[in-house]
Design goal:
heterodimer, A: two-stranded antiparallel sheet, 15% strand, B: alpha/beta, three-stranded parallel beta sheet, 12% strand, globular
């Protein structure tokens, strides 16, 4: 079966509609937070301060909303534990070359306007106006529905790779958006 | 997403996360986040509403610059489709630097 949007079941669509109601989403978030299906690190929350003025800082965007380039392989929607792989998105791509593969939320708004979830246009504009220093050369799309063995891969492989790339690119700020 | 923010922050790069699920964000322990009680799939708001989207970016950048300790979840309290947005005063961000 294809990964295209037609493959989303009616049940999944209905569920996505329900979770689009803020109160339902918060109820789900509470249940999920109390479950053992996600990782709650016990070590202290890390903290780094901005080392230079905002107007000199390079900004990278990271989203777990399933954003990728049209030419890149879509995220794997057949594995119930999700897909912990990474899509690198160059900072100079037009929004029209981006798309979303993610069956676990209703992304019709982001399909119409990518800035709802992946605000490349806004940060490009802020960089041009000198409010931030620059847009990073590489940004990242992931798929947020990650559980089980894939959660280990996310923590041990994908997330460190993102951090290393951002450091190599001299990025000063990471801006993250969920699905 | 919180796990990625932690990893990036631990590498020395400050992060700010938009959260649509407060209890998950609190449970994971995210360095800096801005929570809005909005529908999933809309971290910066509605399609074709650039002023609303920029307001969230502005608030996130203020939080990035001003949060004094890890784990603070900022809550601007914008009500979904009930708040009227004005263009942020971007010059304020430069003043925080000062």
């Amino acid at each position: 079966m294809d990964n295209d949007r037609e493959s989303i079941s009616l049940f999944q669509r209905l569920q996505n509609r329900l979770y689009a109601i803020p109160a339902v989403a918060q109820w789900w978030a509470g249940r999920f937070a109390r479950s053992t299906r996600h990782s709650s690190p016990t070590d202290p929350v890390p903290f780094s301060r901005l080392a230079k003025p905002l107007a000199e800082s390079s900004v990278a965007i990271i989203t777990t909303g399933g954003v990728h380039l049209q030419g890149q392989p879509p995220f794997d929607m057949r594995d119930p534990d999700g897909d912990a792989s990474l899509r690198t998105i160059p900072g100079d791509v037009p929004a029209s070359e981006l798309m979303i593969t993610h069956d676990y939320y209703n992304h019709t708004s982001a399909d119409r306007d990518m800035n709802v979830i992946f605000p490349l246009d806004h940060f490009r504009d802020l960089a041009q106006r000198g409010i931030v220093g620059s847009l990073a050369p590489r940004h990242f799309g992931l798929m947020g529905h990650i559980e089980g063995a894939h959660l280990v891969r996310l923590q041990e492989e994908t997330a460190p790779k993102i951090a290393a790339t951002l450091r190599a690119d001299g990025v000063d700020i990471a801006f993250l958006t969920p699905a | 997403m919180g796990l990625i923010a932690r990893e990036v922050e631990a590498a020395g790069i400050p992060t700010v996360v938009i959260s649509l699920a407060k209890e998950i964000t609190e449970s994971v322990g995210v360095p800096r986040s801005l929570f809005v009680k909005w529908p999933l799939g809309h971290p910066l708001g509605e399609a074709m509403m650039p002023t609303q989207q920029r307001t969230l970016i502005f608030d996130a950048l203020v939080h990035l610059q001003t949060a004094s300790e890890p784990g603070i979840v900022a809550e601007p309290g914008y009500r979904w489709r009930r708040h009227v947005y004005a263009e942020p005063d971007w010059a304020q961000l430069q003043q925080i630097d000062g």
